[in-house]
């Protein structure tokens, strides 16, 4: 049976870059909404819309990741079953 890990780890640099990118994007969006020349209710609506977009993007990413991990686990179980069958099979056994 293969010993390849199911869970793949990302590097610390990739994690840091993703966090920094998210922080910069949220800060820029917040500053843009705050400095927008519009009524307070328009700015509030845009802020709520951005927060909703962020939470739904996180949820979508989590669902996609969970589905991919479940597919990898099923694939590993199928691989283990096949390897067990092949290990137990004797081609010279009389039928």
UniProtKB/TrEMBL annotation:
UniProt-listed InterPro entries: YiaA-like, YiaAB
Q: Where is the YiaAB two helix domain?
A: 14-66
Q: Which Pfam families match?
A: YiaAB (PF05360)
* Keyword list, A-Z: Membrane, Transmembrane, Transmembrane helix
Entry protein name: YiaAB two helix domain-containing protein
- On the tree of life, the source organism's domain of life is Bacteria
Which residue spans traverse the membrane?
Answer: 12-34, 40-61
Annotated signal peptide: none
Q: Does the keyword Phosphoprotein apply?
A: no
